[in-house]
Design goal:
Two copies of one chain form a homodimer. Chain A is α+β, with helices and mostly antiparallel strands. Chain A has eight helices and 26 strands. The two termini of chain A are about 50 Å apart.
């Protein structure tokens, strides 16, 4: 193969979008489901709260009985019972009656508001109310949180801790989630011999786990056609990523191997770094070919593999956030490729600046550590000038202070 | 106790900052360290790459031998050897000589640039070079990524996948990380009886895990002084969170229990929701008292517990991101408290708007699901007006498109 006919980035995404993959599901206890993706809309099977509840500690009253109540002119109501979050009221309030109750307690019949304890003083079997309340004040209405049929999660959303709380409230105990795993295989004699340490595969495993997807590392294999084919065939994950061997050289075996046992969807993209990124299908299973160099692999993962997983499995990842910044140094795109330039963001006089890092090799992982964002230069642009306002995609948790 | 003397939010943080806690550490294999926090600066013990390496597949040359090379006037160089990422060169380039080499290969003595394979054509034992190269072009210089002593992670930073890659490159195999766990205990007869499901504790466990800290749930206990004291004393986590029983009522036992077996640092804050939030110390161990209602607990966790953990353990959490938005409806702060108002952000005509959700109870978890941010109204403000530009803290992964 050669790399004289690289495809454009958008074209790679189009080819990805045309592929279909099966979605497997696994039903989990909701308590173990945080971070997973739901396959269907999750709706509430019940109304919550099921009845009016007190939002505070105090006294259930008829709001009309408190009209014009004040410290100088308190309303005096008779206490006819006490209710906690565990009680079922067995009485009904009549005029000038009240019930002591605690947060979460069911509102008794005849009551339509709750006076906070701080605004009262109990005197024997009566309570003095010092402040008037509005109708339904301090009451959490039945169904205020969830009505039966309300959507808690949309298909493909990732379950957060507050979704978990809502599912528990709604009485949901189990939830069907996406079951997908990615297998990673690394090729390279230099990895097998130990002369070069494999930093790319562990990084990919961690990146995939952070997305909420299982990842398995299947080891380093030598640059040997039979070894690699055997290793590929033994992997039963849904998607495979092979690192290394993706280039155009004679020692780069991946292209020919995928051609031999499957088909190439694309190989070689006009992006920098990540130019040698490829995608094949072997027995309907997607196999990504990524550079063995960590930064090239990181850029390809973020911009090719991640959107592919989202599309194929119908899930939504948190989208990378962007900030606007002023470029401190010109960037030239001489090669008509899409460039991912690592930049260091900083603030000065209330403005945000992006300082492009000077690096030569696509393997320089420290550039990602020193950077807190990257700038995408589209392949049809000649670059950006010093002083241009650009959009920067954030890496990690850089927090711009809003000027 | 009563809640007539609530303290201000800032005052609660000051009291938190005055407390000291011990930091325990655990040494982990770097591959298991992603998501953990480092206790010291992590510096590179070695220089990486240790020697000049090729960033591409091609030919190692003397750059001077390629001057003015073009397709019409190629330079013809003699190939004297082949190097892959695993080879140690045993020769030195003389004038008009070159070596075939692959990405990652060590640059042989005498060479100072690499010509990409695409810009060459091999003819027998010679290669025609069609493009001139600059000095050091396509070479990843020794130490370009990391010099010995370079800081990979600063004290208190959270380890990301790319930090992992850098540590592996640098030859770091183990790393000392923070070992801290939070124990959660829930109180309430209504939870023990099962009349009300505990959604708050599992949510807190998930929130804490998402921060990179271990969390253990120690069950629901009845509103009984002895039960609660026994349960508290059996917990050996570094920090305890008790949900429920934090209010001012007679059924709320936590204040008196903490007073009895320890001391109260504060209890009751002028925030809404989350007013009943408290902090005590029992045998030097911090015990947070949080509402049993999920949203009040969530707000208190985010704004009290989270900054406390960061301060006490010297670690940095990703700071919540903020966006500017235009308020669609006025918000009134009648009570002089600090309000956390859930808002729904949306875009219209290139502007971002924040629509405050109408809710009464602090328990309405669906307000967090429907919201994608919250607006903080400081206690010295009377509120915000419809049309005001406000800062909104993001919940989850709302991504504003930059207008």
């Amino acid at each position: 193969m050669d790399f004289k006919t690289l495809i454009r980035y958008d074209n790679a995404l189009e080819r990805i979008n045309q592929l279909k993959t099966e979605r497997r599901s696994v039903t989990l206890s909701v308590k173990e489901s945080v971070g997973r993706f739901v396959l269907d809309d999750i709706t509430s099977p019940s109304t919550f709260p099921p009845h009016d509840r007190s939002a505070v500690d105090g006294f259930a009253v008829k709001f009309e009985d408190t009209l014009s109540a004040s410290r100088n002119n308190p309303a005096s109501l008779k206490i006819i019972g006490t209710l906690n979050a565990d009680s079922v009221p067995k009485f009904k309030l009549q005029g000038m009656e009240c019930a002591r109750l605690f947060t979460g307690a069911m509102i008794p019949e005849g009551s339509d508001a709750v006076v906070m304890q701080e605004d009262t003083e109990a005197v024997g079997d009566h309570v003095l109310v010092f402040k008037q309340v509005r109708k339904f004040q301090n009451i959490m209405r039945a169904g205020e949180d969830l009505h039966k049929g309300d959507i808690i999660l949309h298909e493909g959303e990732r379950i957060t801790p507050w979704h978990l709380a809502a599912m528990i409230e709604a009485g949901i105990e189990h939830v069907k989630t996406l079951d997908v795993s990615v297998g990673i295989l690394s090729t390279g004699d230099e990895l097998v011999s130990g002369r070069i340490k494999n930093s790319t595969a562990p990084m990919l495993v961690a990146l995939i786990n952070n997305l909420g997807i299982s990842a398995h590392f299947h080891g380093n294999v030598a640059d040997d056609r039979k070894n690699i084919v055997d290793a590929l065939k033994s992997i039963d994950d849904d998607v495979i990523i092979v690192t290394g061997g993706s280039g155009p050289s004679s020692v780069d075996l991946m292209h020919d191997i995928v051609l031999e046992i499957g088909e190439i969807i694309f190989h070689g993209i006009r992006i920098k770094p990540g130019r040698t990124t490829g995608l094949g299908l072997v027995e309907q299973k997607p196999i990504f070919m990524l550079s063995g160099l960590p930064v090239a692999a990181l850029v390809a993962f973020d911009n090719i593999v991640r959107p592919a997983l989202a599309t194929w499995f119908g899930i939504q990842f948190a989208s990378g956030r962007e900030v606007k910044a002023i470029l401190t140094r010109s960037i030239y795109n001489n090669d008509g490729v899409m460039m991912f330039v690592r930049v260091k963001l900083f603030q000065e006089n209330g403005r945000t600046y992006a300082d492009p890092l000077r690096t030569t090799g696509s393997g320089v992982i420290s550039s990602v550590i020193r950077a807190n964002g990257y700038l995408v230069v589209r392949d049809n642009l000649e670059g950006y000038k010093d002083g241009d306002e650009v959009k920067v995609k954030l890496i990690g948790d850089y927090n711009e202070n809003i000027p």
